[in-house]
Design a protein that fits this description.
Layout (H helix, E strand, L loop, with lengths): L13 E6 L6 H13 L4 E4 L4 H7 L4 E2 L4 H4 L6 E4 L9 H6 L2 E6 L9 H5 L8 E3 L8 H12 L9 E10 L5 E11 L10 H20 L9
Parallel strand pairs: 1-2, 1-5, 2-3, 4-5, 4-6
Antiparallel strand pairs: 7-8
Amino acid sequence: MMRFIKNEDSKMFTLIIEHLEPCLNKWLLKEYEIASKLFEGRTIFTNVKKRESELILKKLGMVFQDSVTVMLKDRTDVIVLDPKAETVLTPTDLKRTAYVVIGGIMGSHPPAGRTHKFITSKMPTATARNIGRHQYTIAGAAYVVKLVESGREIGDIKYVFGLRVKKKMSSAIELEVELPYAFPIDDEGNVMLPEEYFRIIVEYVPIYEARVLASNQDVCQNE
């Protein structure tokens, strides 16, 4: 079993993303890239079983095949971001922890509680925290954690719930994708995510849905 050792001299926590999707599609990879940039040099991906995914994610951070639920099972200095947690994340929490775990999950609506099922319930000594009453994307959650690390309280972080992203496909066709998640915004009301993030979403969703409708085959193929 591979294990990683944290630099005990560092006062900053390490962000861990537990990869829980069957494939690494373009949308999910963009989520991971944003999180990795926010926590550059201290991002780890766990539960990465496929060799091709491992090779891609090594460009973004350390990668392990083992699940974080095994690697850090008995640690008490771990925070799991779980929408079902009863307590809100605070700046003080982050000063006292060595690891923050985010589930690498493409959110469902309504939330299915997969973070609790696959991570929190398997880490009894970890601390569960939420970042508000709404579900964020992986990238959005990473942004919120970064703001809390800087000293912001969850209640002071502005967000918008639900976005509609449109793209002109032709002179007669316009694609609209609805995202039923919370997105952090700045003081001017701008969503704190890069423009290419939304471009990738509107390009990817039709491909995914077409594959699901066409067959029962692995929708990860050739993504």
